[in-house]
Amino acid sequence: MVNTRISTSGLNLWFGKNHVLQDVNLSVHEKKVTAMIGPSGCGKSTLLRCFNRMNDLIPETRIEGTIMLGEQDIYAPKADVTRIRAKVGMVFQKPNPFPKSIFNNVAYGLVIQGKYSKCDLHGRVEESLKAAWLWDEVKDRLHSSAMSLSGGQQQRLCIARALANSPEVLLLDEPTSALDPQSTAKIEELCLELKKSVSILIVTHNIAQAGRISDYTAFMYLGQMVEFGKTDQVFTVPNDKRTEEYLTGVFG
Amino acid sequence: MKSFKEKSFQSITYITSLFTIVILMGIIYSLFREGLPLFKTVSVKEFLFTQNWYPTHSEPEFGAWALIAGSFYVTLGALLIGVPLGLGSAIFVSEVASPKLKEIAKPVIELLAGIPSVVYGLFGMAFLAPLIRQWFNLNTGLNVFSASVILGVMIVPIIASMSEDALSNVPKSIREAALALGSTKVECIFRAVIPSAKSGIIGSILLGFGRAIGETMVVLMVAGGSAQIPKGIFSSVRPMTSTIAAEMGETVMGDLHYQSLFALAMVLFIITFVTNLITELVFLKRSFR
Question: Which segments of A70-211 are extended strands (E)?
Answer without folding.
Answer: 72-73, 88-91, 169-173, 199-203
